[in-house]
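Q: Structure tokens for this one, please.
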Amino acid sequence: MMISKGKRWRVLGFASLLLLTALAAAWAIPVPYFVLRPGSAVPVLQFVDVEGADFRERGEFLLTTVSVREGNALEYLLAWMVPGSKLVPREEMLDPGENPDMYRRRQQEWMTLSQQNAILAAFRYAGRSAEEILLGVKVIRTLSGMPAEGKLMSGDRIVAVDGQPTRSVSQLLRKLREKRKGESVRITLWRQGKKLEKTLPLVPFSQAKGGQVGIGIVPMTERRIRTDPPVQIRADHIGGPSAGLMFALEILNQLTSEDLTRGLKIAGTGTLTAEGEVGQIGGVEQKVAAADREGADLFFVPADVHPGDSNQSRAEAAARAIGSRMKIVPVRTLNEAVHHLERLKTASVKGPIIDTPAVLTYNDPVFMVRAGAM
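A: Here is the predicted structure, written as tokens:
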């Protein structure tokens, strides 16, 4: 039986409508996952400006990112088909009681900390003037069901505990470690230009050891950095702490006369403390893919040092899986990364995937960031 041309078009139109309806429904159905995909690998130079720097980079440092999307049924299905995609359970991305908006704000705070640490580490490495002015402990958010809920607010700046000046997270934690369950703590803080005092009971954290108590906040040290010469980093659209190492390398390259790029495309990732120690990050496979896509010659990755560390092994496996000729270089410190670049003599390093760091010494970071940060 022959089907008329008009009827055939009506059938195709109905089928297309059904498909579009199904796709729209799949887009609207949430799933308890985030979808990670390779992001970008872009020159760090466009974000960093050291005042008065007079230099030319023959190569470039590349900052790598991960595309993070809230999951829906359609994204879930595509993640199984699109190379480089990864599904991450919602509870692994978000802290307890945190929603996606809170997560994005937290990532922006980590980015600010990352920039400050990069400036301090680079200037200290170069032996240049850098002053760290501690202002207090910023409350990123309060935890549900904890004493701080309803009494402290996001943006509050804690400046004293029991009348004693408190200017950093480490000072706050040290004071709380002296307390026991059932005791209270008097918090002095600034909120929207007003100085306030709050008395909060202390409760134990279930995940803590040794009966450690707290008030239930996500804290971050608030500070200002003064350097000579001044530095500006403009990366407000990027979140997370993992750009610290690459920011520091770019700052160093502008501070000194030697071109560390050696004419190469040098990508990488890694958190960085103000003391120059490199820490683990999340989404390393996607960052390797992004760097390889941009033709990077070398990729710095946090070395696997502690039990549970996996950035180095995952980066090496990811490079092998996509047949990359980009060299994966694990580093523990800014010092190691710089020394590796200083040893390069040619503008071609492609070859074996695995390399050995120049310096093997390691000191535990003073400030450990949350594992899995982007």
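A few notes: The CA atoms of residues 41 and 63 lie 5 Å apart. The longest strand covers residues 30-43.
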